[in-house]
Design brief:
The chain has eight helices and twelve strands. The protein is of the alpha/beta class and 252 residues long. It holds the Pfam family Hydrolase_4.
């Protein structure tokens, strides 16, 4: 089912799947990464996860952040802070329209950073948190003046920086330099599942190791042979889905 949610004059586009009714007892909210979308392409990580979650009886919502996919806004205006605002509206929808009694957040890459901070802001609302290759090193990169191989002056940030054909606004880097990622994340007291690929060349496993150090109720898996999208020659995606399924089934 296609859904749209309004946030400060922007229309956020999403998909509610794995259910034929609006109200559900439990739901997983999936958040995509930098330059990504909700997973329209067959074989995309979020698409595979949604199929597995729905098959296990868990309803899902995945959506495009502002400026991405089918959602309104310009990509150049996107920041981690604006994505947090998107996430707050999505969670509000899940709580008051879907009336979910259990809410699980699943974030990949930058979506993992957003999910971790949302859980830190809403520790009494989020029941479980799953972070997949969370890109918390985006703050380190912004302080150095680097983004996916593109270099800029971190002390005199330009109005825009082009990354793989995507025009990123200077505000993205300015706000990234001072994001309290781990300080907010550690306020979450619920169970956390961390999964990172050992061969990740986009976000080093150090990001998940830092999360592992601040969370109290957590488990961390480093997948040998897996890259940033948690895939590799030994069917690591299946391992990821099995770990998530086991984690969500606990204490139901």
């Amino acid at each position: 089912m296609e859904i749209t949610i309004q946030r400060d004059g922007l229309t956020l586009f999403g998909l509610l799947e794995g259910t034929d009714r609006i109200e559900n007892k439990e739901i997983a909210v999936l958040m995509h990464g930098f330059k990504g979308d909700l997973g329209y392409r067959k074989g995309a990580l979020l698409d595979e996860l949604v199929q597995a979650l729905n098959a296990a009886g868990i309803a899902t919502i995945r959506f495009d952040f502002n400026g991405c996919g089918k959602s309104g806004g310009r990509f150049r205006d996107m920041t981690v802070l604006s994505e947090i605002l998107d996430g707050l509206k999505i969670i509000d929808y899940v709580r008051h329209v879907i009336k979910a009694q259990k809410i699980y957040l699943i974030g990949h890459s930058q979506g993992g950073v957003v999910a971790s901070m949302l859980a830190g802001y809403l520790p009494d609302v989020i029941d479980k948190l799953i972070l997949l290759a969370p890109a918390a090193t985006l703050k380190d990169d912004a302080l150095k003046g680097e983004c996916q191989g593109v270099v800029y002056d971190p002390n005199h940030i330009p109005d825009t920086v082009v990354i793989d054909g995507f025009t990123v606004g200077g505000d993205y880097f300015r706000t990234a330099q001072t994001l309290p990622i781990y300080e907010v994340a550690e306020n979450y007291w619920g169970p956390v599942l961390l999964i990172h690929g050992a061969l990740d060349k986009v976000v080093p496993p150090l990001a998940s190791e830092r999360y592992n150090a601040v969370y109290k109720n957590k488990r961390y898996y480093l997948l040998e042979g897996a890259g940033h999208n948690l895939s590799g020659e030994n069917n690591q995606r299946r391992t990821v889905k099995e770990l998530i399924d086991s984690f969500l089934r606990e204490s139901k």
